[in-house]
Recover the amino acids of this structure.
């Protein structure tokens, strides 16, 4: 048998990939740079489609576990749990891939290269794709992104379980309808302080295999062909070794909408020469002409294809099947009983209790005869899943979850209440055509559970099928349609009302906060979400979620949507008081936190240990998140304070434990106007507790985080 260097498993994956590429013709190489890469029979290369999705479960390829949307997973504030979820997703991904390969299915959404996670910063609550992210904070996004990647890619010493992809690089968060032509202008300070940290962590800590460029330009350069982002930052500064993919059909935007090139040939040359290895789309076929015209060297294409095949080699696609441990994952590992249980746990852990006046929640099943379940999201499957979703074998809406939980012992009366966003449910009716039904149910109910909010038809990606607002962005932060009017009618009934919000973003529910005694934020809680909500409502599980985004009071207080300056945005830079702050979330039990720090003066080489003793002083078992924030006291234009440490702890009633969180000197450093990370000599404040140190959080929780003064001894440029 003829020796083939690229099949020699004793060599490195990079050397083997380079050897394989060296045997390809230019045309063969070019067709390997498309997301649907062609078969090369003579070299034993199978067709492979790089485009697959796993944002909150394996997507778009049949049955899989559909977890809560990413923003809900972020609300767990639990990096260990994120890795557990991602490990489950990659197990199902491998199981489905192994089955598909057996039957020769190499179609789109059938590969092991998952274009997840989305680590863009959710800087503006109007952005339709914000629910794909981990929220507004760079530190939280970094921690969750890294652990999600580790869960997807696995911990085998040789092979990857799946290949993760951090997207969309960079400075990308709407508006959706402008993304193909938009130039996100951003300062070096904001770029490095807010928009890049999560990507850097994914590359350097998570060892993410792929990075996807964004549609927009950043400071004039189209992201999928940006020398600054792809060459200078990603590869040269951060040392990224994996492959870069374009967003889908983004490269044709170069000449059609960004107008930075004149022809398709110029566009593909710009992308390839600046380090974009893979084209989601078909523009890279023009690379053949680009080489003929002298715009791209064949060696550059060879390097790109080598990177792509290195990924496929790492996945074990060119090795003896018995050598790759993940090849033994069988199809019966998809949609298992254990995965369903994990999904319900994820739903419960993600739900945030925003208000609970006079301890209305949890509801006591034994004291209820009739429960009214009212609202357009009560029985809305679309409000369970968000976008980039798979197909669940079972969907449990909030209504179904409550009905299952209460059984035959309690009467449930249901009304849609109103349309999600229109003024009537039935086309020929007058406006507010469910009002009488709402009043009747309220009159006969002991308690009312109102299920309001949004769904994936109102917020999502531009071009999503059925997206009511066309671009996918929200026009404002209000509850759409007649929802608030129905809430007012419910409160007028005099019956206790619990508001369950299902949405992927913050809503300005100021009226509800003033008038409704209990409010839950359930996000898009996944296919098993109804069961999770029910178990929270009736006290089988104590809420532990925290907000990964700020809930603002009005749309008007937001800066312009197109303004990428961070001034006035998110908890770190907003001037006004939040309705519900980032990091906030109540519980059915109570916790005390006492803190100490190891030192009060540090040099650039040192770190501080924060010891937090946390005790469950309530009567229920539950979990709480220790949160550490740092504020610079002597630096102008510094953020108010910034999250720099988290740790989720579960405690039984009466139980106490000690948590240690390390703050390296870097946690005190700030980016200057030139984008340099500077540890400034001077005074800082460290806050340790279970929320932000802002006045609104203190008012809502009744607790003030402990604070400590820390002095940095000298000024040093760290990066």
């Amino acid at each position: 048998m003829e020796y083939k260097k690229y099949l020699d498993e004793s060599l490195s994956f990079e050397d083997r990939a380079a050897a394989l590429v060296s045997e390809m013709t230019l045309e063969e190489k070019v067709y390997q740079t498309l997301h649907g890469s062609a078969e090369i029979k003579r070299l034993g290369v199978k067709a492979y489609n790089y485009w697959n999705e796993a944002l909150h479960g394996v997507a778009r390829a049949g049955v899989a576990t559909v977890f809560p949307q990413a923003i809900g997973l972020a609300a767990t504030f639990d990096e260990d749990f994120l890795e557990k979820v991602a490990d489950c997703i990659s197990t199902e991904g491998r199981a489905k891939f192994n089955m598909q390969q057996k039957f020769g299915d190499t179609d789109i959404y059938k590969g092991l290269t998952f274009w997840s996670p989305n680590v863009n910063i959710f800087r503006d609550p109007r952005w339709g794709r914000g629910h794909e992210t981990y929220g507004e904070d760079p530190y939280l996004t970094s921690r969750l992104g890294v652990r999600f990647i580790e869960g997807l890619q696995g911990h085998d010493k040789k092979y990857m379980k799946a290949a993760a992809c951090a997207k969309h690089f960079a400075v990308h968060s709407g508006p959706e309808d402008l993304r193909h032509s938009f130039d996100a202008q951003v300062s070096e300070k904001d770029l490095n302080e807010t928009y890049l940290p999560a990507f850097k962590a994914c590359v350097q800590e998570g060892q993410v295999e792929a990075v996807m460029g964004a549609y927009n330009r950043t400071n004039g350069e189209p992201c999928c062909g940006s020398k600054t982002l792809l060459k200078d930052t990603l590869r040269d500064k951060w040392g990224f070794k994996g492959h870069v993919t374009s967003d889908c059909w983004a490269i044709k935007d170069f000449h059609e909408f960004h107008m930075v090139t004149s022809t398709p040939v110029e566009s593909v040359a710009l992308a390839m020469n600046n380090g974009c290895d893979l084209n989601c789309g078909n523009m890279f076929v023009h690379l053949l002409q680009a080489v003929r015209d002298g715009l791209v060297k064949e060696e550059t294409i060879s390097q790109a294809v080598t990177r792509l095949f290195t990924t496929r080699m790492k996945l074990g696609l060119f090795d003896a099947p018995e050598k790759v441990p993940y090849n033994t994952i069988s199809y019966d590992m998809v949609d298992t009983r254990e995965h369903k249980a994990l999904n319900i746990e994820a739903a419960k852990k993600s739900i945030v209790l925003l208000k609970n006046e006079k301890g209305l929640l949890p509801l006591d099943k034994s004291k209820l005869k009739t429960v009214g379940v009212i609202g357009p999201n009560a029985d809305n499957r679309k409000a369970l899943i968000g976008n980039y979703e798979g197909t669940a074998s079972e969907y449990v809406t909030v209504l179904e979850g409550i009905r299952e939980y209460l059984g035959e012992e309690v009467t449930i009366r249901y009304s849609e209440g109103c349309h999600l966003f229109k003024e009537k449910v039935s086309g020929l009716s007058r406006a507010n055509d469910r009002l009488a039904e709402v009043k009747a149910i309220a009159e006969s109910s002991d308690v009312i559970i109102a299920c309001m909010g949004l769904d994936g038809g109102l917020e999502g990606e531009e071009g999503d099928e059925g997206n009511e607002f066309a671009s996918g962005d929200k026009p404002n932060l209000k509850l759409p349609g007649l929802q608030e009017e129905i809430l007012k009618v419910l409160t007028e009934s005099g019956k206790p009302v619990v508001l369950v919000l299902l949405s992927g973003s913050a809503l300005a529910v100021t009226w509800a906060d003033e008038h409704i005694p209990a409010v839950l934020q359930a996000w898009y809680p996944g296919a098993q979400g109804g069961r999770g909500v029910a178990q929270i409502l009736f006290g089988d599980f104590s809420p532990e979620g925290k907000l990964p985004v700020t809930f603002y009071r009005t749309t008007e207080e937001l800066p312009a949507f197109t303004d990428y300056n961070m001034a006035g945005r998110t908890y770190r830079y907003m001037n006004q008081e939040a309705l519900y702050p980032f990091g906030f979330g109540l519980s059915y039990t109570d916790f005390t936190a006492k803190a100490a720090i190891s030192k009060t003066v540090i040099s650039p080489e040192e770190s501080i240990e924060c010891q937090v003793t946390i005790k469950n002083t309530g009567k229920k078992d539950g979990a709480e998140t220790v949160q550490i924030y740092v504020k610079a006291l002597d630096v102008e234009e510094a953020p108010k304070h910034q999250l720099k440490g988290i740790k989720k702890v579960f405690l039984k009633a009466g139980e106490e434990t000690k948590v240690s969180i390390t703050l390296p000197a870097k946690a005190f450093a700030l980016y200057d106007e030139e984008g340099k990370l500077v540890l400034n000599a001077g005074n800082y404040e460290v806050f340790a507790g279970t929320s932000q140190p802002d006045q609104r959080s203190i008012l809502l929780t009744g607790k003030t985080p402990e604070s400590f003064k820390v002095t940095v001894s000298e000024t040093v440029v760290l990066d």
In short: The first strand starts at residue 36 and ends at 37. The mean pLDDT is 97. The two ends are 52 Å apart (CA to CA). Residues 572 and 639 are 5 Å apart (CA to CA).
